[in-house]
Amino acid sequence: MKDPAGRPESRRAANARKRISRRPSRLGLPAGSTAKPDRVREVDAGFPGLLKRVWRRAAEAEDLRASLDVLLTLDGHVPGDIQLRALNTAEQAALTALCGLSWREAGNTSGAAAAPLRTAATAEPAPDTCETPAFLGEIGLATSGRIALRTPGARPLDPRDLVGGVRRVPWSRAALAAYQDELDRARERAAARAADCRAWLAEQGAEGRDALLAQAREAALRTAPFVLHQEDTQYTNFRGRNTLTGKTLWPGHPDCALSALRGLPLKLWSDQDTQLLVCLTLLIRSAGFGRVEEANGTQLTVDHVAHTLERVRRVYNAVPGVEPVPAAASHRVADLDRLAVALRERRRSVGRHAQLYREIHGALMHKVERVAAAPGAAARARQDAVTERLRAGLPLAGDTLAELGRNLAAAPGWLAEPHGAFGTGLESLVYQTVAAAADAFDADFAMSRGMRSLPDLVRALRGESWTEICDWDITRFFCCVVPRPEAAVHFGGSQAALADAAWAMSSRMQYNSWHFVAGNLPRVPEVVARDHFVPPVIPDLAFFSDQHHHGHVHNNVRFSVRSPQAVEVDGRRFDGFMDLRLLRCAGDPFDEQDLLAAHQVSAFIARAASLAAQLVAAGAQLEVTAFDSGWHWRAVTGRGPAASGSPAGQAREAS
């Protein structure tokens, strides 16, 4: 940076500037100068608190089946089949023997197309008339969120791994016999699957296996956190003891389970590692890296992957106008591989006929790909409300968002000129659209992000300055966050706390833009070395996201809609360049119709961004200077930053 006289900023001045807080309520004050934090998060906030409540409800349940319903769904926070598919072989056999619960369809031993939890039960074993149990087992809830079971022959559950105590589970002789039969069948299936995986990997040859390992490592590095299980072995790039490349383990780290296999003779691979690589390969081939997150929290086995692929096949085949994909001939890897490739090819056609999106269950970070129904009256009502607001606030005419977009495309020049209180029409359009969406969707917060200097980006692209783009920090990006005034109730009724939350979200979204932009650049060494995720291309609905992500927990981000959009800049397509996000801190979650409407609203903003990029490519100078910390303070509180800089001003706000 330079001072007003144009001289380069000294190191002392730069360090002093960095020590100034950018939090709206403390703008201009030295960071860390207050006696105590504004808010202190409870020790068991988020996931730990949820698990305590879940175990309390489960322990109070009248019988084992009622207790299991609470544990499997985490008291209504996740679909029960996710937890059911997280069980190891012995635990799954135990629940089948005790309660008839299975993720497989009744009478289906292949593992294909499991029905919903409540109808996936096989016939329960006949009750034993003996009063004395043949075996006294245990059931508990692990701190990871998984159900823990003590099965026959196993040691008692370790209380250090549990949320609370245990519930004693009496076993009859009939249940023991059913358990043994089920366990024998499961072990026979597992042995056959492991042998098939090993044979398939042998066919790939040493170079082929190394290529698959490199692909799987890249998936672990470039996707959001996931936790996968192989019996009691955990493979994860998430917090704690990582076993896969991610934020903790750099690519090639010897502690990465995938890196450790490179060059190792296949005979020395464990059955778990062979199945890990095969399953990751099948998931990636079916839809790219994002499909791996659809196994989050479950056992990563061939049968479970087959279950996922079959579910996707049925969903795709239900889309009108799309040529059906035939089912896999068997659960042999070669047959599933052909199915995975066919699904990836058919996915493009599905995307042209219907809207794909992902459903995210935050408690277990599990994702499920869905195909949306057609937009209905609810979606149209949301869009109409946004359209009406935009007609009133922008120099555009039209009865629909599409008509507003066409009107804008016909005369986009005002996007580069001052408009209202903003330095550019683009800034005004972003703000007006986000504010309209917050009201139209009954959201506590709405937001949209982008890049501050399109001229700098165009210049760097034309010069192929990939290193320069990778070196840009998050201040090169912006996010306009608009909270509704009613949202203050979730922050102690304080406008200052609401403004701080809005700015925290804005900063995080700036990081997301930074994190995605490199994924659109050529894979030169500088880009490959730069931390980035694969940019998102389809929208998603999230439920109970206030569990793991510290920012989400702290700022009550419970339900959300995210609609990413691509923007074209000087002939290059940037996926995930911007998005529209809608958040609710409490109340009802957003639904599919909300998502469909939000996707149209975000497409309108993306169209404006692409038009602005065209203006810049033709020579216009368009910079986004709004949406910094001071702007969020003024927008939320209606006062200038000076009002927040003094202890007296903070005291007035707190009152």
Residues in helix, %? 40-55%
Mean pLDDT: 90
Q: Report the portion of residues in β strands.
A: 5-15%
The description of the largest β-sheet is: 7 strands, mixed
Q: Strands of the biggest beta sheet: in what spatial order?
A: 7-6-10-11-12-8-9
The rounded Rg comes to 27 Å
Named at the architecture level, the CATH assignment of the largest domain is 2-Layer Sandwich
What does this structure look like?
This protein is an alpha+beta fold and 655 residues long. The protein is built from 20 helices and twelve strands. It has helices spanning 11-18, 47-60, 64-72, 80-84, 89-99, 173-222, 271-287, 302-317, 333-353, 377-393, 401-410, 425-440, 454-462, 466-471, 495-517, 525-529, 550-554, 592-617, 629-637, 647-654; strands at 135-141, 147-150, 167-171, 227-230, 233-236, 356-361, 366-371, 445-451, 477-483, 540-543, 559-569, 572-584. The strands form three sheets. A seven-stranded mixed beta sheet has the order 7-6-10-11-12-8-9, sandwiched between helices. Helix 7 runs parallel beside helix 9 (333-353), helix 10 runs parallel beside helix 18 and helix 15 (495-517) runs antiparallel to helix 19. It is globular. Residues 106-129 and 642-655 have low confidence and may be disordered.
